[in-house]
Design a protein that fits this description.
The chain has 346 residues and is α/β, with parallel strands linked by helices. It has 16 helices and ten strands. It folds into two domains: 194 residues, 3-Layer(aba) Sandwich (D-Maltodextrin-Binding Protein, domain 2), CATH 3.40.190.10; 95 residues, 3-Layer(aba) Sandwich (D-Maltodextrin-Binding Protein, domain 2). The strands form two sheets. The chain has a five-stranded mixed beta sheet, sandwiched between helices. The termini are far apart.
Length: 346
């Protein structure tokens, strides 16, 4: 009688064990995946806690367009910020920054003065290093001769607006101390109001206010971007303690500003539409404001030492500081903006 060869029980048991083991392993993996999926759904459904951050602006002007774009199109939010821009007089935002009531300001030159005086401030970004101002005169004043003896308004006190105004007056062949009287109109909006009311003979305005005035019959006597040398006007300034204690927040702030600039350049239709809406302009005027602003932006986000040194020298001359060892490295730090550009690979 032929015997049937039987496999040892141990091997049959091992096969059963292997099959059951694979089964339970598959079940375990499925349970784990379900748990991860449920956790992910909970995370997606829960609102992301945003970090409040404030930025002081001297005026609402198109030179700050990348900031408004970043706010409107959710760029600040995507970097984890509950972003709040604060518009006030330059002197007010400087005081608020130094006291810790503001996180950041854009007034690069206005922050430089207090820094030279000992305030612990540092700049980590340059957004514009060309003049964005235009000398606009009343309809009846068409040249330098008509300005002689008149009042010219400028924004701020002794910051970039003042210095650009002085330079444009000199460009016309006039002495800013003898031939005209310079007064502060606080900001560009009040400057335009003073011009329209006839309180001043001329005023320096930024976009879109210069275009708004020209379309009403006022004259653009000098175009700052065309005749003035490179000089830093806006950027990002903060307390040194902020940079030291919270560099990640500073890095994300810089990312938002750079991304806002890229969006402004890459999507002109959206940017022009935002100008048109926020300033209540017609499409043509908004387009002009956009076109004149784009060349003033600094895509690199930093400036060479010679330009920083020129700014330092000008502030020291205004303050009548004869001797000082203050250097560009005492005010600027480009470490994080360089890191951000590497991250964004732009």
């Amino acid at each position: 009688m032929k015997r049937t060869k039987m496999k040892p029980r141990i091997f049959r048991g091992w096969a059963i064990f292997k099959r059951s083991h694979r089964f339970y392993a598959c079940v375990s993996v499925l349970i784990w995946l379900a748990a991860v999926s449920a956790a992910a759904q909970d995370t997606i459904g829960a609102p992301r806690k945003l970090e409040p951050v404030t930025l002081g602006l001297s005026a609402k002007q198109v030179v700050n367009l990348p900031i408004y774009v970043a706010q409107t199109y959710g760029i600040f939010k995507s970097e984890g910020f509950d972003f709040k821009p604060i518009t006030a007089k330059t002197s007010t935002i400087i005081a608020a920054l130094v006291s810790g009531d503001l996180d950041y300001i854009t007034a690069f030159n206005s922050g430089l003065g207090p820094a030279i005086g000992g305030a612990p401030l540092v700049a980590t970004f340059v957004s514009t290093d060309k003049s964005f101002l235009y000398l606009i005169s009343r309809p009846d004043i068409k040249d330098a001769k008509g300005l002689r003896g008149g009042i010219i308004g400028h924004g701020g006190t002794r910051g970039g607006h003042y210095h650009d105004t002085v330079a444009m007056v000199k460009h016309l062949g006039l002495d800013p101390e003898k031939d005209v009287k310079l007064i502060s109109t606080i900001d560009v909006t009040q400057g335009m109001a003073a011009l329209f009311s006839g309180a001043v003979a001329a005023v320096t305005l930024s976009a879109p206010y210069d275009s708004m005035a020209v379309r009403k019959g006022f004259n653009r006597l000098v175009s700052g971007p065309d005749v003035l040398p490179r000089f830093i006007t806006t950027g990002l300034v903060m307390r040194r303690a902020k940079l030291r204690d919270n560099p990640d927040q500073v890095r994300r702030m810089l990312r938002a500003l750079v991304r806002g600039l890229h969006y402004t350049i890459d999507r002109p239709h959206d940017a022009v539409a935002l100008i048109q809406k926020d300033w209540n302009l017609d499409r043509e005027t908004a387009q002009i404001a956009y076109d004149v602003s784009i060349p003033t932006f600094n895509l690199k986000g930093e400036s060479p030492d010679e330009i920083i040194s020129a700014a330092i020298k000008r502030v020291q001359q205004d303050a009548k500081i004869v001797s000082s060892n203050f250097m560009p490295k005492d005010y600027v730090d480009w470490t994080l903006i360089r890191k951000v550009h590497r991250e964004l690979q732009r």
